[in-house]
Here is the input.
Amino acid sequence: MSVVIDVSAVMPWGVPDEDTDSTAPVRARVQREQAVVPSLFWFELANAVVRAERRGRITEEKGTEFLEFFDDVIADEAVPPASALAQLARVHGLTAYDAAYLWVAQSRGLPLATLDGQLRAAATKAGIEVL
Here is the structure.
């Protein structure tokens, strides 16, 4: 079974001082089973990596290697309907961006890996397994 990942759950893998033992199980699962993401994942991930590079937290070379890692572990991309995003955002008090991850997990019946507290609470409330 795949897993839905958001950028908050994966950035610690690319920034050495953020990586902890608690992030390892999700990473292993993603490498083994691959992941499903909303299409906006790529924009958020690229932006987070470039910000980390600009702050001197990682080199451009490491940033590129990290981004390329995801080419091999993303099984599918989903484009949620705007009306569904708006409804989930309203119901759970989320941004439409975060609602996209919730929608993918809900529509595919997959667990969600996130470090975002508000998104975790919304997923739990919606009956979605949170990693």
